[in-house]
User: Fold this.
Amino acid sequence: MMSYVPKKGKAVVLLSSMHDDQAVSHNSGKRKPEVIQYYNRTKIGVDLMDQMVHTFTCKRQVRRWPMALWHNLIDVATLNAYTTLKARHPGDLGGQNDARGASSRSLAKSL
Assistant:
């Protein structure tokens, strides 16, 4: 666990079992911890997942955070199910324009 303060009043707390807390990269102009640089290199996957989840979502405006978390878990699980289906059976989707929506509806009906 480490704390990094890029600007005054803006602290970032990092937790990693992969990186050493003393590891700092000097090759860029700024001295950033390796954990920050690794996150910046690999965060594209999280951004892409958020974009794909936003296309077909079950989220609703709720005031309780457990319900918001539940809706997000359902969205991510549905995307993971579609990704697994597409990887295991690439020809079964038949090039549908709405293949993800169709698989989401089929998954919902089977539950």
